[in-house]
Amino acid sequence: MDHDVYDLYGVQGASGPYNGMDAAELSVAWQKSRHSNSQGSCVEFARLPGGEVAVRNSRFPDGPALVYTRAEIEAMLLGVKDGEFDHLVG
Fold first, then answer.
1. 49-58 pLDDT, tens per residue?
2. For residue 2, is it within any domain?
3. What residue numbers bound the domain in which 28 lies?
4. CA 42 and chain centroid, separation
5. Is residue 11 included in any domain, yes or no?
6. 26 and 67 in contact (C-beta within 8 Å)?
7. CA dist., res. 53 & res. 6, Å (int)
8. pLDDT tens for residues 9-47?
9. What is the CB-side half-sphere exposure of residue 13 using CA atoms within 13 A?
10. Are 46 and 31 in contact, with CB atoms under 8 Å apart?
11. What is this structure's pTM?
12. In a domain, 4, yes or no
């Protein structure tokens, strides 16, 4: 499948954020939940300049980042707030 690739500033043909890229390649401010514990059991989120949201595992900060659209993150957060995923940790 052929995709147009844009960098973080919308320049076509440059490499931009993509799923599985090294999180260390993203120059962003990562945020973790205040409910995280000292053992690093959390995921971290970062808003990208194009509006997407990157997610990484805090135990592997240089590992892969997953990149989601704002709509995808919004749908996930609404599901979490509604308790749709409670069975995964219960």
1. 999 999 999 8
2. no
3. 21-88
4. 12
5. no
6. no
7. 15
8. 444 445 678 888 899 889 999 999 888 877 777 899 999
9. 0
10. yes
11. 0.76
12. no
